[in-house]
Amino acid sequence: MGNLLEHVGIEKERVHFSWISSAEATKFVDVVKKITEKVRALGPNKKLKKQYN
Amino acid sequence: MGCGECAIKCPGKADDEYNMGLSTRKAIYVEYPQAVPLKFRIDPDLCLKLTKDKCGTCEEVCPANAVDYTQTESKETLKAGSIIFAPGFKPFDPTILDNYQYSNYHNVVTSMEFERILSATGPTNGHITTLPKVPVNPKKKKDKLLAEQQKNPKRIAWFQCVGSRDINKCDNSHCSSVCCMYALKEAIIAKEHAGDDLDCSIFYMDMRTPGKEFEKYYETAKNKHKINFIRSRVHTVTEVPGSHDLKIEYVDDFGVRQTEIYDMIVLSVGLEISQETKDLAEKLGIEVSQNGFCKTPTFDPVSSSRDGIYISGVFNSPKDIPESVLDAGAAASAAGDSLSEARNTLTKVPESVLEVNVTGDRPRIGVFLCDCGSNINGVVDCPDVTEYAKTLPYVEFAYEPLYACSQDAQDKMAEFIKEKNLNRIVVAACTPKTHEPLFQETLKNAGLNKYLFEMTNIRNHNSWVHKNNPEIATLKAKDLVRMAVAKSALSEPLTEEKISVNDTVVVIGGGVAGMAAAQSLAAQGYETHIIEKKSGLGGEALKLYKTAQGEDAQEELKKMLKNINSNNKIHVHLDTTIESVGGFVGNFKSDFANKDENFSLEYGISVIATGAKAYEPDEYSYGKDDRIIASLDLDKMFQQNDSKLKKINSAVFIQCVGSREPERPYCSRVCCTHSVESAIELKTRKPDTDVFILYRDIRTYGEKELLYKKARDMGVIFIRYDVENKPVVKAEKDNVKITINDHVLNIPLEIEADLVTLATAIVPRKSEKLANFYKVPLNDEGFFVEKHAKLGPAEFATDGVFLCGSGHYPKPLDEAITQGKASASRALTLLAKKDTLFTSGTIANVDFQTCSACGVCISICPYNAPEFAKEGWGKGKAEINPVLCKGCGLCVASCRSGAIHLKGFDTNQIFSQIFGLG
Amino acid sequence: MKIIKIDKKEWEQGLDKSRKEYHLFGAVKDKDYYLIQALGDKVYPDMESSDTILSPKSVIFPQTEKMLTANLDEAQDNHHIMERVETDYSPRAVLGIKPYDAKAFKILQLNFDTEEFKDPYFCDAYAATTLVGLAVNNPGQFDFSTSVDTGPFDETDLDVLLIDTGNEYLAKVITDKGENFISKCGFDNQTDEKNALETISKLKKKAEKAIVSTVSHDKLNGKTILELYNAPFWDDIAFSCINCGTCTYVCPTCWCFDIQDETKDKSCIRFRNWDTCMSRLFTEHASGHNPREGKTQRVRQRFMHKLKYFPDKYDQGLMCVGCGRCVKHCPVNIDIREICEQMNS
Amino acid sequence: MHTYTEKIQNLAKDVLKQGKAEMVIGFKQGTIPMAANPFVAKNENDADNLIWSSTCGLNLANYLPGIKKCEGKIGIIAKGCDSRNIVTHIVENKIDREKLYIIGLPCTGMVDKKQIALLFDDEITQFSEEGNTLIVKSETKEEKINKQEYLRSNCKTCTHRNPVIYDELVSDLVEEQIIEDQFADVKKIEAMSSEEKWDFFDKLTEDCIRCYACRNACPLCYCPTCFVDESGPQWVGKGQNTDDIKTFHYLRAYHCAGRCTDCGACEEACPMDIKVRNFTRKLNKDSLELFNWEAGLDISQRPPLDTYQPDDPDDFIM
Predict the structure, then answer these.
(1) Is the ipTM of this complex over 0.90?
(2) Which residue, B156, B168, B329, C152, is most buried by CB atoms nearer than 10 A?
């Protein structure tokens, strides 16, 4: 899934896969923080974002 | 309600026992955050109200008026038919071991303390720090100084066998069974938390990882996580002057004295029985061993010496979680056996309310927004959110109770449902995990289908985490409510299918585990069929001489067989194999092939007890010389009192033959004990025999350690070898020559033996066919994979199929019997619910029109719920068996044709939630 | 009638002049094939081009066309009121359009621009458009226009017909629209009509003779609908069809469309897309019932519509201008000529 | 005439005569040069119309699920890729192996018609082949070209020219090609930056008219209702919006992941000459690299995405 999105030009930092058990609250927070930082560094996504009107 | 208001205001403070005293708690407290029910209690020794009649703050602040100082300890008398005694253990207190300096140094901690340090909910939030025992908010000057010197540790050492296998400094001669594994786990997690440069060393005597998948874990710790393993007992720990670093001294494998510096030491403390338990055991009149563990017979492994009192857990013997769970099941089953006649005599049937048909009605949603005292309302502007909810589409009514889960709020909810003619309910409160069933019950009582309920969590996910941002929290609460309402509008009443359960049971395999399961099931009144491929019951146990406790295995087995054969509920089918399995939980049907005639059975439950067998080695010239034999061959000689035994002057046992090897990377669990037992037998029969046991690690776990000690006392010589440097066996005319490198002297040693016994691995039977029949998994080595390694060791993920015996993993007689009883106990939970067993409503459903019959769902479902419909208008298309479906959604996600829908979580519902957000 | 002579050297200059008033469209080769495109500055139509894959119908009847918008913000007064989308209908000229493609607009008008119903989007676009045709001197092997009442020099619905005589174009100015466009280009070299017509006539005969592909449909009129509908060959014809919409999308006369609404946040648009009778969805009812469930029914519908229903209803000949695009682009080689012959025999 | 044509006709006649199958799916001569028309021969006379040429590039397996009325077996001419899609059909419960009589055709590659057309300014009027030489004529010129140079790109990298499943063969098996770098084309895209990739696919799909010929020519696409046609939920907008167009292509590719045999029918069918294999090729490469999987080689194995193995690669999970 991620591979094809990356292949067609979606930056790979925008797609993350992680396995977090419901008991791993800290890991969840860490992962979300890490991803948020990465995505923020990339700036807003303009791809595959349909423009209406 | 568990709102915690009281604890916030309470002035009393004490060490938090749950965090091993590494942090503090209040005088009114919940013992640990996972406590169910989440209720506060008052510490009577600390509470100012109870001790000095001052304060009383908690009573004042409690919004639910739940504080009552007048409650006191009271005695109650219960009449019971059986007692299950599961008092557990006490971690060994290392204070008395002065060489480890536990009381003196802040950075010498017990493994229990280290567990809390690693925990995200622990005193350091999972952050590992040197000097962890320094208080979080140090008050004393000394502590403050220490706190400044705290740093991230670079090197941590674990000391094994602290309070175990030690009669020198303490009186615990047993092995605690679990410490090696937990030390591995702690070291791995420590590395995960602190990063790979953390240096972790484990000082041990024997690495004991005989449990299922444990050996692989040990290998991973060594090879992947690069944890150091040092075979030595450390004798001295001192502080490096001018720092808090710890200097340890030990003698290494070659007898050389070594010194090393560590930041932190974790003492892997053992399991022992508390004095309190010992006293209680005495009062109950049950016999205990020298270490205080309960004495239980091998063939009745959960029964104490007193009738009607059953034992479970570490009090029975030191054990890990899965064995404790098995004990529990077995004890429950044993206790139930004698009570089966009384079952269902005291149950009451609740009145049921007729369900209103809401199909096709316009949604009329009622929103209940819980204040949770100040838990939610203290942060979120609940009145504002309630007003907002009223403006949402299809919302007829919104209400803001103080506590939505309180009885009066429930009554109101039922009233409002009727009064306002509501047909969907949304509750914005805490977690559905604990409260959903309660609300659903209220819906049911008000005549609504319970799946017309939707819950959103504005406490745990919102007011708790956004405490400091009330405005954002209020906005988020609105978002959450809007999403829940959007989903709720599309919810439909769902039905739960009743599962009929045929109460006949089929046990596959007639070894001790299977027989034990059958005995329990029959004792509870269920017709039980034992299917045995061979021409007699007993399995591998027939080949054993004595049990580890010294009982005559064959005598005991005979008693068991007699009991089985005289039980008219147990039907034994010998020389029989299973040929097919159709159906599902409660409704299986199988064909069986028998040498006389084939037959078929309809049954509700299956117990798989196919066992395992001895590995036939090609190592060490086995089979080429009759002086080189396998363990069970020696048992046979003992059984027959073989005359050859008398001529043996020198005997050698070689351990790990076929086990812990690349092609069989597991420990066979029983062989160390078995060889030690046989060595003792040889020594007993002829004390001047030279007996050698060549081993890698001696794994006489639990009280089997006593046998190991006895063998050493009797003069059995134990010589360790490395897997890279195995002993060499050469059969010569007069004797067999074994060459081995002596691990102490590091020189080759030659032993001349009259008999070489190979402790061969235990390998599972080829069970692919059976695994396929019942659609249950096998692991890489061919052992069955249980539902849950820790919590579900006697059952499969597939409903209605249970597991016991060595087909699960190699195990001694007592453990096999325990698992047999435990599997029966798990089976009983289904059998006993015969008339009240329903499927869930939230299951997958196929739309025949869009189904392309490609079979992906069938291939991917872990529960085998989908199959191609054999009849009806959807013939040939996929169809979901509601009984087998767990509602996991795997098929829904993988259906390319979009034909599968998860009821209660349909795509349009999820989308409406997502769009509701944006 | 005016005939203007245009030196090819002056052609592009003339076009540039017209740009002040007109948006120009024409065939442009991008990648390996020709498409009709709006021409940017300094971009000129390829007048030597073979057929564009898609016909020029999209200039007046785009594949996706916004029709109405509404805002859903209840705070605003005009919420939930559909309003027509503002579209630029300033003059445009399509250059080098083949005569059969121009004729197709005549057929489209039967649907979009009638006494009874006027589709404002089509009519406004049509009114704004000047069709400048180019006679086909060297018809390709797919061209069977002469068999279907069109032809390489057909003037139907054209405003100007250009005839390539080598170094120059002869421009037959057919309508006022055409007159306006030619004058805006500054082409004013009026030529002797008689001579010019003679040249044109020669070229026309030569071109018509060069058309090798024919199709007969003379007997279709005499057959009943049911006779053709129940003909035995439909299953065999339809076997290879994969029900893609290629034939309908490349066809200059296919006019079916489907209306869709899309909403996001507080805004909503209604637009139409070309639809295709090859799609199962084309006739699927909300109930799930589909009167054209199988591909045979769908294939039959397409050919019956073009070759029987349409001629019967409008008496304007076949609903086909003989461009041959569907024959050329059908991935499985379903050939309307062959089917027409079968129906006619 | 292609050397296979006569063999196919004879085999088909024999099959129909002896009742080994009730019908034989093959190609008949098209009405225009370089066209072949999928065709079903139901009797011996029909069989005379069967032909073979290097233009029979569509995938006949596509027609199997559509055949509802057939009591006996269905005969089908299957080149390498067709046979792999037949395997996929069997695996995916579209048809029983017992229902089929497969006439295997060792394939020597199909030609890229669009490439050949580019050699001419006018229309091609004649096409014939003699072994490896293609003779192509138009009104204005004649070209003799080497077939190997004008193979479709998927045929150039094909390593399964011989049918993988068949009841009888049209000829002896041909030698399989040894391809040094199967996925050079994919790697070229992989080497691009995100922006370049995005632009590449923008350009690639800009002319798409959403006729869905690629989908409909694909044997893998047999769902009763395709996701693009669903209205509740509507996964993809229906207009000519570029994001909607791309979404269609992405999702179509995902649905082919681990199932695509790279038969090239999608590109062959596209009227706009869009190289849609650029989407599926990446997934084929991943399937091979991650799961050592090529689709349609074994009727006893489900595609990797239909199954779970504990040792499935999981490097993407962080």
Answers:
(1) no
(2) B329
